[in-house]
C-alpha cells in the first residue's frame, strides 16, 4: 500500500518467514507501518499477530526476509544502532514480563538508567514516582511482581514501556485481564500518546481500545497479512475472508462505534 503524501514508514517487513518450533507463525509477510500513525493488528487466535508484533520490535529474528527500522535491517544493526532503536521504543507485553527479582520501582527505573545514563538518581526517582502516581500504584513501589495482581502487573508493564517517553510503542493486548478503572487509565494514556504523535503498533481485541486507537488496520489470517490500510478502507474491503474476520472481531465494537454496523450489514457493495 502506498503512503499518504509526506508519510514515511518507521517499520517495514519484507517477505518475512518465521517458525516457532513446528509452527509456521509468519509465512512471507510483507507489511509497513507509517510513522506517526496508530495501527491495530487483527486476526483470529493463532494467526500470528503477537509474533508479527515481536518481529517488528526486533525481539524475534526471522528465519528469512527483512525487518527494517527507518530503512535499516534491525538484525544487521551494530550495538550502537540497536541501542538507538531500544531507546526510542517501548513494548507492552501481554503477560507483563516484569523482572521478578526487582521491585516495581526498580522495574520502571531500569529502562531510564540503561537508556538515559545522564539522568540523576533524583530525576529517575521523580519520573518513576510520577508514573506510578498516575495509576495509583505508588503504594506498591517496593513490592516485587509476585505480590502484585495480574492487572497490576499489566499496568506495570505499560508504565515501564512508557516511562522513557518513546516515540514508537508496541502493545500486545495492553488491556487484557485488567479492571475497568485501569482500562480507562490506559485508554487515556494512549490518547495522550496519539496526541503527541507517537507511532503505535498494537494487537488487541478490546473494542473500546480499538476505536480509541486505530488509524489503520492490518488483518492477518494463518500467518499472512491479507489486508492493510486506513481503518475505513480495510473496513470496506470487498475481500470475503477479510470481511469474515472483521465481522467476527468487530461485532462487539459496533456497540461502541455505530458506523461499524455498516461493515456487519454490508453485502460488499463498498468493495
Strand-helix topology:
Elements lengths: L8 E12 L2 E12 L3 E5 L6 H8 L7 E6 L2 E2 L5 H10 E4 L11 H12 L5 H14 L15 H13 L5 E5 L7 H16 L3 E5 L3 H7 L2 E6 L2 E7 H5 L4 H11 L10 H5 L6
Tell me what the structure shows.
With 271 residues, the chain is an alpha/beta fold. The protein has a single domain (9-265), classed as Rossmann fold (3-Layer(aba) Sandwich), CATH 3.40.50. 37% of the residues lie in helices and 24% in strands. The protein has helices at 49-56, 79-88, 104-115, 121-134, 150-162, 180-195, 207-213, 231-235, 240-250, 261-265, and strands spanning 9-20, 23-34, 38-42, 64-69, 72-73, 89-92, 168-172, 199-203, 216-221, 224-230. The strands form two sheets. Strands 6-7-8-3-9-10 form a six-stranded mixed beta sheet, with helices on both faces. A four-stranded antiparallel beta sheet has the order 2-1-4-5, covered by helices on one side.
Taken from the alpha-carbon principal axes, the silhouette is globular
Number of strands: 10
Q: Any idea of the CATH topology?
A: Rossmann fold
Strand residue percentage: 15-25%
- How would you sum up the major sheet? 6 strands, mixed
Taking pLDDT < 50 over at least 5 consecutive residues as the criterion, the unreliable ranges are 253-264, 266-271
Amino acid at each position: 500500500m502506498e503512503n499518504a503524501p509526506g508519510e514515511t514508514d518507521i517499520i517495514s517487513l519484507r517477505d518475512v518467514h518465521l517458525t516457532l518450533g513446528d509452527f509456521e507463525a509468519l509465512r512471507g509477510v510483507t507489511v509497513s507501518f507509517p510513522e506517526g500513525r496508530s495501527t491495530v493488528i487483527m486476526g483470529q487466535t493463532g494467526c500470528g499477530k503477537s509474533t508479527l508484533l515481536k518481529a517488528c520490535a526486533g525481539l524475534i529474528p526471522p528465519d528469512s526476509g527483512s525487518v527494517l527500522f527507518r530503512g535499516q535491517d534491525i538484525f544487521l544493526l551494530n550495538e550502537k544502532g540497536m541501542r538507538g532503536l531500544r531507546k526510542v521504543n517501548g513494548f507492552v507485553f501481554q503477560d507483563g514480563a516484569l523482572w521478578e527479582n526487582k521491585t516495581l520501582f526498580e522495574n520502571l527505573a531500569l529502562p531510564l538508567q540503561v537508556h538515559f545514563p545522564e539522568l540523576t538518581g533524583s530525576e529517575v526517582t521523580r519520573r518513576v514516582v510520577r508514573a506510578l502516581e498516575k495509576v495509583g500504584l505508588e503504594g506498591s513501589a517496593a513490592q516485587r511482581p509476585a505480590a502484585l495482581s495480574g492487572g497490576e502487573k499489566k499496568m506495570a508493564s505499560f508504565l515501564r514501556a512508557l516511562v522513557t517517553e518513546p516515540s514508537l510503542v508496541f502493545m500486545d493486548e495492553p488491556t487484557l485481564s485488567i479492571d475497568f478503572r485501569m482500562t480507562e487509565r490506559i485508554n487515556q494514556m494512549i490518547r495522550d500518546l496519539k496526541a503527541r504523535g507517537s507511532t503505535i503498533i498494537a494487537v488487541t481485541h478490546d473494542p473500546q481500545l480499538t476505536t480509541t486507537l486505530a488509524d489503520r488496520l492490518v488483518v492477518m489470517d494463518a500467518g499472512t497479512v491479507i489486508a492493510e490500510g486506513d481503518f475505513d478502507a480495510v473496513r470496506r474491503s470487498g475481500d470475503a475472508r477479510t470481511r469474515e474476520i472483521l465481522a467476527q472481531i468487530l461485532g462487539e465494537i459496533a456497540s461502541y462505534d455505530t458506523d461499524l454496523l455498516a461493515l456487519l450489514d454490508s453485502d460488499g457493495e463498498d468493495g
